[in-house]
Amino acid sequence: TGAVGLYNVGQSCCLNSLLQVFLMNIRFTGILRRITVPPCAAQKRRNVPYQMLLLLEEMQCGKRKAVSPINLACCLSAYRVKLFVQYDAAQLFLTLWNLIKRQMKKPELVEELSYLYTICVQEHLACQKCSSETKRNSSMLTLPLPVLDSNSDMLKTLEDCLQYFFRPEELTDHNMCFCEQCGRKTPFLQSMKLVHLPQTLTIHLKRFCFEKSAYVHKLSHYLPFPQDLDFNAILTEDQCQADDNEKATWQYELFAVVAHSGSTSCGHYCAYIRSLTECKWYCFNDSEVCQVWWDDVKCTYGHFNLHWGETAYLLIYMKKHPQ
Amino acid sequence: MAQWQEVQSLANAYLEQVHQLYAGAALPMVVRQCLAAWIEDQNWRQAAEPLSSHARMLFHSLLALLGECLGSPGLGDEDFMLKHNLRKARRDLQAEFDECPEKFANVVANLLQEEQRILRLGQAGGQGGAAPAPSTPQESNREQQIQRRLAEFHVALQEAERAFRHLEDLQDTFDFCFKVHYLPGEDRTSDPQYAQQVQALQAKLQILDRQRREVLAQMQQLLGRSETLRDFLQEELGAWRERQQRACLGATVDTRLRPLETWFTELGQGLFQLLQLLRALGDLRQKVTYERDPLKAETPLLEQRLRELLIYLLQRAFVVEQQPSMPNTCKRPLVLRTASKFSVRARLLVCLHDRNHRMEAKIHIDRDPPKIKGFRKFNILTSNSKTLLAGDSPQDGLVCDFQYLTLKEQKDSRSGKGSKGAGEGPLVVTEELHLITFTLAYAYCGLELELETSTLPFVIISNNNQLSSAWASILWFNMLSTNPKDQQFFSTPPPAPWPRLAEVLSWQFESVAERGLSREHLLMLAEKLFGSKPSPESTLAWSKFSKDGASGFSFWAWLDGILGLLQEHLKQLWKDGLILGFVSRKQEKKLLKGKRTGTFLIRFSESILGGVTCTWVEHPESGPPAFRAVVPYTTAELVSLALPDIIHDYQLLVEENIPENPLRFLYPDTARDEAFGPYYSQRQEGNLMEQKKYLNRRLIRVSSRQANESWQTEEELVAATENLETLQLQPGGLGTQQPGDVAPLQPGSSGTLQPGGSGTLQVTSGNLGMLQVMTGSPGTLQPGSPAMLQPSSPGMLQVMATSPGTLQPRSSGTLQPGPQGLEPLQPLQVGSGVSEVLQPGIGELEPQLVLQLVPEGQGTLQVLPRGLGVLQHVGPEDQRTQQVGPGAVEPQLVLQLVPEGQGMLQVGPGGLGTLQVLPGGLGTLQPVARDAGMLQQVGAGDTGLPPPVLGAVEPLLVPEGQGMLPLELRDTESLPGSQDVQELLHSLVEELEPGSGMLETLEAAELMPNMLEAMDGGLEGLGPGLAGSAALVDPCDPFLPQLEDPTLPAVSSLFTATDFPPLHIDANDFQ
């Protein structure tokens, strides 16, 4: 047990942080340990889940303070995840997850993995002229939450962001859609209803904004998030499309925070993870790991006047009462 | 303490874990013990890394040290076993790890780490109790957390420095090898040795790269942790600012900066150290760099982040330690007076500076003045800049202390009107907020920036009488403002939530007299403000708090008046809880109702600025309890006689001529002397044997009243006697001297006093029907001093005897008009004009009549009706007049004044019920004989007299009256001045006798309460015509319907009618 660091092998702080989030998740490692070992060495080298498993073993067996993820990094580079490139953690998370899923051969594991991470929503699009409505089920790996509202005002809390995200939106003017019944472009009401939430819920705080076309800058303002998150308290009845049994499980506890410091052009990632076995928080800065407290995690809320400090970027919540 | 020592001092449960740890460990405990200090000093973790040459070096050092141990003389023969074990251990280690020293390094590193873990658990468990704590040590209070984190931060910083030095070594080695072996100019590709060397170089570079990344990771971690510390310190500083603000308002809180200063300095120091480390890292990159050098991208990033953190910390660390205040009003800071000295002090909590660099602090007033029309501008006189002083001792910190500053208003030449903001701007002077801003050019370790901090807003006044309302502004601002720099706060001052206001008001009392307001006090204040019980949502508007109300003064002015009174006179009593203080009349009745007769409480007047009074309860033999209160004492009175002494000596003249102190038990039931004993001032013990030129004298306060229980008010008698003791020594003496006459003189008793030199006796009787005259010692009366009478309240009648010896008619005239209330029937003697005269009293709270008798000039009696509505009405129309003074009125019985003890009742002419005393009065005096039970009417001729008198009243009654005097009076004048008053009176009485016929009984009739009874009796006997005059009589008298009479004016409560619902007198109270 305990936490083991990962050496930085070339701007790999982002990868390291995500790997820690995966590997500290005992539900994920429970699946990972059951993968089929690829038969030959070449395949082993190129198999992401297998390399992750090797890394996990290495981290857990040795009493070393940190191990080097160089083999996994090499393996990933075959899939165009290169070293010495600064990635966006949310994007890398999706890439990594998809690689893992694709390379897990057993269908039951794939299913379990999907179930563990996938959010299901139902998108509604209703014509405001006739009442025709189209629904579409879709799934997501993260909830990409804006941190500014449509007027570019800062949202105050994570709960506000979630509410804003699930708020119905009117599509008017040049956003109008073509309605088949009306036979012309009409205003629509677009809304999203939550159908299912996974065991491991990843929330992506979109802490950046595009200003003057190409220039992206980071939003480091204060945005608190709770340790305990109850979706039933956040969403209204008509923002959900789930039965009571499902809803009863929508009680979450914070598991990890992937935090970013620096600017959009250059920066550093680290991960704050609550060990599920010890119930202690750790901070992973590449090879440096140390025990921290909730107060340290709170420092990633952001700050109105400080732009270079750590701010939470990905929040990973876990269900309190797994089914 | 070294780690191994600490481990050994662990509790057994944890020691057991340590034993288990070493049971199977490759490092025997004996070696650990033997080389404890050395082992702890090495960086095993570093050495444990693959390919580290460090591990081999450490391993061999260890073996060598063990060898030394074995050979050292310190181990004698008795340590034979120890030697044996060490030798064995050395052999085993060498055999096991010679090939792979990194493994050994790893083993040791892990053992040390595990020891630390057990140590933490053990220490946490030891604090929290015996049970081993499986969880992490509890983060207890914030202060401990900060200290623990600061310690951890320093440890981590040292580790980072160690890692950095290791990196330097690695780099030097690499650099050397590289320069020696790498020869890019030549084509050596074929040379296998060269290839090998290049490969080795490559490997070294790998290690170097990894070490660089590790050091960077460590720094990232350090910065992350210091951000938490930054937030903690920021939080603590915020809490301190709040405390400082509360302290300014009078709360007693800890505003020491020392802990914060220590923390800020420690963190600042650590961060500056880190900054230097980062710079050194940058230097390393200058020497050796390579493709994808992590230092290249990350060092600037780290430095950026670190600088931002440092700047933030320094900016917060510059604080105003002492808000601007004037030395003489230090309990009310933030109020400055132009041209008066004040001081203000700022401090930089990060106590780091370069001694070679002078840092200058400057102050500016209103750097960004609000755009308010008429906003006054000021200059700070004397210097506005100062070098930041680093005190000689490091404990002093970095302080810029500005003392002896003064403010001078800038005359604005353009406006041409000076800068009188009051008339022009929307804000009055006391609502105009000013700020002083400090700036400091800070430079340290290559970091330069300008720090800035501002005081809380303050008010600038030009006169001390603005102090109270300026302070109200300061209270309001600091209680409610969310922005400490909001100079326009009073453009739209927010209302104050009651709970917050209550707290702040309580602090005012706490800071003045060390005792805050209780829940009951606050409840009373809330009811006063809101008219009902406050809800947590109740709010009070600024204008209602600070602007004058209908009562003529604001709530705050009233409260501040009480604060002033406490400060000056009642501090100790308030502090010790003897003053109930804020009690409404209703509440006071509730409290006292069930208590013994003579139970009293002390409360603040609600209608007089800075007044305090006593209310006591009496339980008559039948009927409801009666509550009585004295006219509030203010600073004017308390300055000459302290409240405990007033209470101690207070006298009430009651029946049977025995004056008594009605104040017997302090609510709830502490005996008076027990409660107040410690506060009485020292008595001057008179030595009777000694011949003195003067008698001692002591001031006491006396009230007299009629027996009639229905009267709510008492009169207060202030008599100054000389030599009270003497009087007391001769109880009855005076009485004896006076034959049968006027009982009212009671020796010992009441205030018999005599004005020694001045001769001014003032007797103020509140309501009474009683006459009191008291001369202490007759002989002492000094006829000569004419001036004696002083109308204390404007409405008073005064009679003054100008010339001694001579009775002046007026004096007799001193009679005062009876209370109207009683007799509706009454005659009318007073013209409506009169009623006005009476009205001056109206404003006063307790409508009472105050009679003042000044005996001095013997002739001079003064009776002043103070408050009363009491006058007689003239015809029915006049009834209005009665009501005129809303405040004024408690319907009271008519006053009867018997000048000096004659004990005379006076009935207005014409048989009016109203008592009036007419100047001509003597003639008009009517002795009531007890026995006789008769009221006597004034002769018809007299009736004519009264009106003039009344008219005369406002000024002084006299002149007209004089003309009216009956012959008899004139005769009295002829009496020798030297005579005692009593004698004089007596003689008057005798003279009267013939007329009255009732004289024999006269003595009895004296002011005594029973007189009323007598009167009652008399009334019965009287014909219907007389019945009117009976009005004087007790309201309880079935014949007198007045109480129920709706036309009776209501007694005003202590407050003005607009603010507070008037109290209606409950008829039950009388019956």
From TrEMBL, chain A:
GO terms for biological process: protein deubiquitination. Residues 4-320 form the USP domain. Gene3D superfamilies: Cysteine proteinases. GO terms for cellular component: cytosol; nucleus. PROSITE patterns: USP_1, USP_2, USP_3. InterPro entries: Papain-like_cys_pep_sf, Peptidase_C19, Peptidase_C19_UCH, USP, USP_CS. Transmembrane segments: none annotated. It comes from the Eukaryota. GO terms for molecular function: cysteine-type deubiquitinase activity. Pfam families: UCH. Keywords: Hydrolase. PANTHER family: UBIQUITIN CARBOXYL-TERMINAL HYDROLASE (PTHR24006), UBL CARBOXYL-TERMINAL HYDROLASE 18-RELATED (PTHR24006:SF796). This is Ubl carboxyl-terminal hydrolase 18. It comes from Aptenodytes patagonicus (King penguin). The gene is USP18.
